[in-house]
Amino acid sequence: MRPVAVLGIGQTAVGEHWERSLRDLATQAGLAAMRDAGLEHVQAVFVGNMLSGLLTRQENLGALVADWLGQRPAEAFKVEAACASGAAAFRVAHMAVSSGEVDVALAVGVEKMTDTTSGETTAALATASDADYELVHGVTFVGLNALVMRRYLHEFGWKHTDFAPFSINAHANGARNPNARLQEPISERDYTRARMVCDPINLLDASPIGDGAAAAVLVPAERAYDRPRARVLVAGSASATDTLAVHDRKDPLFLSAAHHSARKAYAQAGLEPSQIDFFELHDAFSIMSALSLEACGFAERGQGPRLGLEGRIRLQQALPISTQGGLKARGHPVGATGMYQLVEVVQQLRGEAGPNQLDRARVGMAQNIGGSGAMIATHILRVA
Q: Distance from the CA of 360 to the CA of which of 69, 72, 94, 274 falls in 20 to 30 A?
């Protein structure tokens, strides 16, 4: 397997883009990544998306996006892994380039979620759960996460307010990200007074949906040597699975797929958790922030909230997370989220993160969760 570099990145702002279609968003992000890479053509296009068939009645996205990017007859197809579809597309692109099968690959994550009613969108998101044993009982995605959070509070003795730092940190960073959907900082008082969505998850525990797209161009590492800016290599790329239904897991409070994918990525990169400079985690709900930190070796079991309470997750601290607002403030256009995370990692490593730029950014990690933890992809990127 040959080393792979990220040569170009692109993204749209996350928002309610009623005037723009799914193909428009994907095309804008894809063309931006190709311009950034200084390329006019790619050999393969991999499109991460979860909901196009349900919400926009459009499938066959690979051919659609390749056509609108002017890349025919490049091979192209859609990659679906629920909310981890974006990182799954990046992983497929990485495998294609590292294997030598493809020399230039474009990974695009795109989602259109705001043209439908909230009921339609919620029902579509619920298809990430087990249709026969969870969805059939009417449980929503937020309901599943609320059950997990309630059990976590019971098992480890934390209070709901102990999770406030995760949301406060994300909003503080999102307020300085022009591509974020929510650009307003919040206080602990805001957090405690937020309306309840599904006890114990309140509005400020949950990420907002949105429309958006993000993209990256991957090439063999040697093709990035002559570029004047920092060369960003994919040091680790891995994914793993767990049971689709939460109740089937031996321990519903441990993200096994996060643990296994992170462990494989660490091994590929030759790194330990202590050597990761920042972490773009999947904070769709604040409980997932704690569980991800624990599964990836940044905190002991049941101690994830402590990192937030001690201030260690903020910019310039021990382990910055959600440096551009994360899912919580940047927004969560589900099929695009994993690609947004990876684009933001590249921005930090290049020194292009604007007001949120970290002083120390040589190694970054991104982790994208599909469903309630059934499929999780972990990537480690570093400056060569």
A: 94
Q: Cα separations (Å) of 96 from 3, 4, 114, 219?
A: 12, 10, 33, 10
Reference 93, options 111, 112, 75; nearest CA is 75
356's tokens:
């949120």
Helix (H) or strand (E) holding 85, with range, is helix 85-98
Pairwise CA distance, residues 184 & 186, whole Å: 6
User: Active-site positions?
Assistant: 83, 332
Domain positions in the chain are 4-117+210-224, 124-206+235-383
Q: Under CATH, what is the fold of the domain 4-117+210-224? A: Peroxisomal Thiolase; Chain A, domain 1 (3.40.47)
Beta bridge partners of 219: 5
Cα angle 234, 238, 239 (rounded to 5 degrees) comes to 145
For 1, the token pair is 């397997």
Please measure the distance between the N-terminal and C-terminal CA atoms of the chain and give it in whole angstroms: 17
| pLDDT value for 228 | 77
Tokens of 220: 């063999």
What is the predicted pLDDT for the residue at 184? Answer: 97
* pLDDT averaged over 10-residue windows placed end to end, the chain, 384 residues: 97 97 98 97 98 98 98 98 98 98 98 96 95 92 96 98 98 98 98 97 98 98 84 98 97 98 98 98 98 98 98 98 98 98 98 97 98 98 96
Residues 6+ apart with CB under 8 A from 193: none
**Which of 97, 115, 114, 98 has its CA nearest to residue 106?**
97
Return left, alpha or beta for 246; rule: phi > 0 is left, psi -120 to 50 is alpha, else beta: alpha
Taking the complete model, does pTM exceed 0.85, yes or no? yes
CATH architecture label of 124-206+235-383 = 3-Layer(aba) Sandwich (3.40)
For residue 324, the one-letter residue type is Q
Strand 196-198 relative to strand 363-370, pairing: unpaired
